[in-house]
Write a structure and sequence with these properties.
71% helix, mainly alpha, globular
Length: 262
């Protein structure tokens, strides 16, 4: 019987598929680290108090990238090239989600609207990250090799999501509510399409690596498309709601360091 746990266990047990999984994850986290670092450097003067939180967000993402690389190193594996069709962050930017990299590579300060767009994009993508890590924590929190990493990254992603909720509510009170809701909706509808396409691509590459049958691959693809159908109908709404989180000022302190896995 196919399940999330059995699928990931199969990926975990094979060196080649595990290296691909970790390489894809490390690449995305490192990209997120760079983006947040640039945003922190370009925050407009009126929002400078937000810069340390954005910096911590980026530091957390960098830490996650190092953790995934350390998990590979522990097994004597090297990172592998990330197939372009599995590059979640690149494809999100291609679909106009978030702040353009050309803008982030420049030196002009961002606008308050740019910060609202950044936080809205993050609120959507951190919802996905939090849910994915919660699923891994549910099944692998006690795993001897990856359990500690899963719990640490899951905790961080929950903090990132809480931070996005709290800051967006602050901006909503300041008069940006319509912009936030419009941006959240646009981001969520684009994200679920990108997530569907990336999920199918990842399963295709994993299937080739692990020698899955055509029937198994077709069943997994059908499942991914069914999830997308649900998200397109109603599931996307969970990504656009805002509520004050239980974790207040979740990114108010320094980032924790990555543990040693070797």
């Amino acid at each position: 019987m196919l399940s999330a746990k059995s699928l990931f266990q199969e990926i975990l047990d094979n060196d080649h598929s595990f290296a691909l999984f970790c390489s894809i994850a490390a690449s995305g986290e490192s990209q997120g680290g760079w983006e947040n670092a640039r945003i922190a450097a370009l925050v407009p003067e009126s929002e400078r108090p937000l810069a340390p939180k954005i910096t911590r967000h980026g530091a957390d993402e960098d830490k996650h990238g190092r953790i995934f690389n350390a998990l590979m190193k522990k097994r004597g594996l090297e990172p592998v090239p990330v197939p372009p069709d599995t590059d979640y962050t690149m494809l999100l930017e291609k679909h106009g989600i978030g702040l353009a990299h050309e803008k982030l590579k420049g030196h002009e300060p961002l606008t308050v609207r740019d910060i609202v767009v950044y936080l809205s994009h993050s609120r959507v993508t951190e919802q996905r990250a939090s849910e994915q890590m919660e699923l891994l924590r549910k099944h692998f929190a006690d795993h001897p090799d990856i359990g500690r990493a899963v719990k640490m990254i899951s905790h961080d992603e929950d903090n990132h999501l809480a931070y996005c909720h709290e800051e967006l509510l602050r901006f909503a009170r300041a008069g940006h509510g319509r912009t936030i809701q419009r941006t959240l909706r646009e981001c969520a509808l684009a994200e679920i399409r990108v997530y569907r396409d990336v999920s199918i691509a990842v399963m295709t590459h994993m299937g080739r690596t692990l020698g899955w049958s055509g029937a198994k691959s077709a069943l997994l693809t059908a499942g991914i498309r069914a999830v997308y159908a649900y998200e397109r109908f109603a599931g996307w709404r969970r990504m656009v709601s805002l509520r004050m989180p239980e974790r207040r000022d979740a990114l108010g302190g320094p980032a924790s360091t990555a543990p040693e896995f070797a």
